[in-house]
Amino acid sequence: MNEIPTSDRCLTMVIAAYNEAEVLPALQPRITAALDAAERDGLEARLLYVDDGSQDATWSVMNDLASRDPRIALLRLSRNFGKEIALTAGLDRVERGAAMILDADGQDPPELLPQFIAKWREGFDDVHGTRIARDGEGVFKRATAHGFYRLIGRLSKTPIPRDTGDFRLLSPRTLAALRQLRERHRFMKGLFGWIGFNQVSIPYQRAPRIAGSSKFSAWKLWNFALEGITSFSTAPLRVATYVGIASAMVAFAYGSWIILKAILWGDPVAGWPTMMAVILFLGGVQLVALGLIGEYLGRLYEESKQRPLYLVDCWQPAGGVDSNPSSILQGAGHAYGASTAGNEIA
Ligand code: UDP
Ligand code: MG
């Protein structure tokens, strides 16, 4: 077993929550137990809750929890930015040691933390939980998720582990690397895959939500899938090229045949249905290709604006941990960690 350097012997659990007031109190005892276990394991244990602009009582529930445990830090974003950005904001605040990402709804069991830490000790940088079962999720969600991971696996050159979400432990050097990736369209699973280093997966049963309902509707998931594919693959653009080439070849052959027919047998001006069919088909193909280009162009436009990724409304560091006030509004920053990117944990 490798020794983690003293300066890195810290573990922060990062939990992004959006309207999870019902769930947090139920999850807290399990988290506390996990933090205690990490402390027994010789690590300094912290918990960071990110309130992703919740409209319910989430923030006051968090404050209540934090007032009872000095290990808890709180971060509130200026509005709802979505899970990927909320996680980014949380991970940006982990100044030391490793981070463990967890969902707020109890679907990712905190009881597995010691297993994750053990793998970190063995020298792994990205220890991710891979779902072997998804209780409490409908057939449709399971089937679409299954299909999505396989599709993106084929389309993208970045290795993205299947059936693996954000439930993972990131070593200090992975965190430092992640801080350098400041793109606005953040498909975290892809970013983790892009970083590389030593990765290992821990199979686990995904439990149903403790309470409340999923924040990801079918429409949001569809957009999420589109985000993933366009952020990590340009294959759709190539599909447009191939469909274009194929239809141009068919059009050329058909055009030649029409000319030949006219020369051999004259032209009785028939073929209205054929003409309409061809026009509509080509028009459709062109619109689809334009739409595809538009998707990429739109993303380019968003990136070009260079806005900060998020804004912080309130930052409450854990008791006894120094915070750096100058880092508060730096969601856009490249100010983090570049110099520590090469740090080793082992
Ligand atoms: N979440 C968030 N911001 C959002 C939507 C969700 O921080 O805009 C958090 C949510 O509170 C939960 C996690 O992301 O901790 C996963 O969300 P959810 O359980 O709704 O997704 P599912 O497990 O159904 O995919
Ligand atoms: Mg969930």
What does this structure look like?
It is a single chain. This protein is of the alpha/beta class and 346 residues long. The chain has 10 helices and 8 strands. It has helices spanning 24-40, 58-68, 83-92, 113-121, 139-155, 172-180, 188-195, 218-232, 235-265, 272-304, and strands spanning 10-17, 44-51, 72-77, 98-103, 126-134, 164-170, 199-206, 312-316. The protein has an 8-stranded mixed beta sheet, sandwiched between helices. Helix 5 runs parallel beside helix 8 and helix 9 packs antiparallel against helix 10. The longest helix is centred in the last third of the chain and has 33 residues, at 272-304. It is elongated and about 90 Å long. It binds uridine-5'-diphosphate and magnesium ion. Magnesium ion (MG) binds at residues 103, 105, 107, 209, 214.
| Side-by-side strand order of the widest sheet | 7-5-6-4-1-2-3-8
- Heteromolecules bound: uridine-5'-diphosphate, magnesium ion
Give the fraction of residues assigned to helices.
40-55%
Tell me the total number of β-strands. 8
Beta percentage is 15-25%
Number of helical elements: 10
Q: What is the ordering of alpha helices and beta strands?
A: EHEHEHEHEHEHHEHHHE
Q: Give the integer mean of the pLDDT values.
A: 82
- Which structural category do the helix and sheet elements fall into? alpha/beta
| Approximate shape | elongated
Rg, alpha carbons: 25 Å
Main sheet record: 8 strands, mixed
Regions with little confidence, pLDDT below 50 for 5+ residues: 320-346
- The oligomeric state is single chain
Q: How many angstroms does the end-to-end distance come to? A: 9 Å
